[in-house]
Design goal:
Length: about 500
């Protein structure tokens, strides 16, 4: 059952509060009332409101009182997704102008303005109904000024291309000579910061020391951005390169891991995309007509981990106030295998997050999968949705980003696997289906750390609209909390933008 829209009514006169509250209650709204600024701010701190109806004069003894307009600006800053309707019996031109004058971005502080007279007050209900469906395009903070793409192919020259604040293309003199299998094995044994750094230094030697053009290009691009986080690194190569732990890359001059300084994405050469990846421009363009839709699939099979179910609820609570996002949470009891298949084929969602158990099948990577109960209400048996099945289910979908919050979602097979299978694992299968971006973990991570990563990811995403920058800021959050616990280096973002 859909929750009623929440409305905050702020008026210093008890009779008006009762009248407005009664009108709204009769139309099915959930109404909270406040008599002054203090009560209104306390209510706003306690819960989210879809609409706030504010009287301008909140002290009838003072004819110059404009506390309602002052409160309007506070709400606009603290809760930008709450639509505001101004209500007053003492309207003047300056008051109307302050409430409805668009700023330089075309956004007005208030959605509407009504006078406290009988003809106008009858318009309150339709005004509030329209306000609940009103949302402005997101006003993102900056996220990218330059992209440095490093094209890598075994036994071929490294090509470095910069786009954005500076533009150039250079190639190395020497061919790339990665020992893919050796580096792939390092992923499995890297369980301490010492081994992580050692592997990261080896990758630095192979890329930067043996290919000075990359080091020079990096320095040139870095000098043209206002912040390190606005320089994006894109590592482009063959599918087998997913297995190389490039996120371990340790910049010796910086004495820091590249993945904690810059947004870092992978790009698989040769994959044809039929839809654009999630980006600030894409989100802004898309949401001028409708909301961006996120499907969260929670599947707490065996072993039961309470935090899996809690994670879905916490993400929903965080994202509910975002008026350009529509979040659908499918809880474990509803996430039966057949039901999930229907949802993934529905073409309704641009973003999907799976929260649950996953596994990687080394002998046949395309049989790796995500686990769902075979029937609703946690009944039947845990049934895998394999990488092969996901590829078919998603190939005609509108999904632009698939977020795998599970064990080994980004794990891959070796080069020999490609001789027998059509994918190297779950993430690769999703990319091969035409989904532009996949975010997953290379190895099993603690549920609490996965929860913290997801919340930090969405906190950044609703600010910037950029998955690569959101991954960077989520990594940094985990590394600041505990750098010795290596969940921060496990995520891989493959993005075909």
């Amino acid at each position: 059952m859909k929750k009623p829209h929440r409305v905050l009514v702020v008026d210093d006169l008890a009779d008006w509060r009762q009248t407005l509250s009664g009108l709204l209650h009769d139309e099915g709204f959930s109404v909270t009332t406040a008599a002054n600024q203090e009560e209104a701010l306390a209510a706003l701190a306690a819960q989210r409101f879809d609409v706030a109806v504010l009287d301008v004069r909140l002290d009838e003894t003072d004819e110059r009182n404009r506390d309602g307009l002052y409160l309007m600006h506070i709400i606009r800053k603290q809760s930008p997704y709450t639509s505001i309707i101004i209500l007053t019996g003492y309207a003047d031109k300056d008051m109307v102008r302050e409430a409805l004058q668009p700023d330089e971005k075309g956004h007005s502080p208030a959605f509407g303005f009504l006078e406290k007279v009988e003809p106008d007050i009858k318009q309150l209900i339709p005004y509030v109904k329209r306000a609940t469906g009103h949302h402005q395009p997101p006003d993102f903070e900056p996220s990218r000024e330059c992209t440095l793409t490093v094209a890598m192919e075994s036994n071929q020259k490294v090509i470095v291309r910069a786009d954005g604040a500076v533009r150039f293309t250079h190639s190395s003199r020497n061919p790339l000579n990665f020992d893919i299998e050796k580096l792939r094995r390092r992923t499995d044994i890297t369980k301490t910061r010492f081994l992580l750094k050692e592997t990261g230094e080896q990758i630095y030697t192979e890329l930067f020391d043996k290919h000075p053009v990359l080091a020079n290009s990096y320095a040139r691009a870095l000098g043209r951005v206002t912040s390190q986080k606005y320089l994006h690194f894109c590592l482009q190569g063959e599918p087998e390169l997913i297995s190389i732990p490039l996120e371990f890359l340790y910049l010796q001059d910086e004495r820091q891991y590249l993945a904690l300084i810059h947004p870092l994405t992978r790009q698989i050469r040769g994959v044809v995309m039929r839809r654009s990846a999630i980006s600030p421009d894409m989100v802004t363009l898309f949401t001028t007509g409708e909301k961006l839709r996120l499907l969260i699939l929670v599947s707490n099979t065996n072993p039961n981990i309470d935090l899996i179910d809690q994670m879905g609820e916490q993400i929903l609570q965080m994202l509910e106030p975002v008026d350009w996002l529509e979040v659908t949470l499918v809880r474990t009891r509803e996430a039966a295998h057949a039901r999930v298949q229907e949802l993934l084929q529905s073409r309704q969602y641009q973003m999907v997050q799976y929260i649950g158990h996953g596994y990687f099948d080394e002998s046949s990577p395309e049989q790796s999968g995500l686990l769902f109960w075979s029937r609703e209400n946690r009944s039947g048996s845990p049934t895998p949705m394999t990488a092969n099945q996901l590829r078919f289910l998603l190939q005609d979908s509108d999904v632009r980003l698939f977020h795998l919050t599970c064990c080994e979602g980004a794990q891959t097979g070796d080069a020999a696997s490609q001789l027998d299978d059509d994918s190297l694992g779950i993430a690769d299968a999703i990319i091969q289906a035409g989904v532009p971006s996949v975010l997953g973990y290379r190895w099993p991570v603690p549920a609490a750390r996965a929860r913290d990563f997801s919340l930090a990811f969405y906190r950044s995403f609703i600010q910037h609209g950029s998955p690569p920058l959101a991954v960077l800021e989520a990594r940094k959050k985990l590394a600041m909390d505990d750098k010795d616990e290596l969940t921060w280096v496990s995520p891989i973002l493959i993005s075909q933008d």
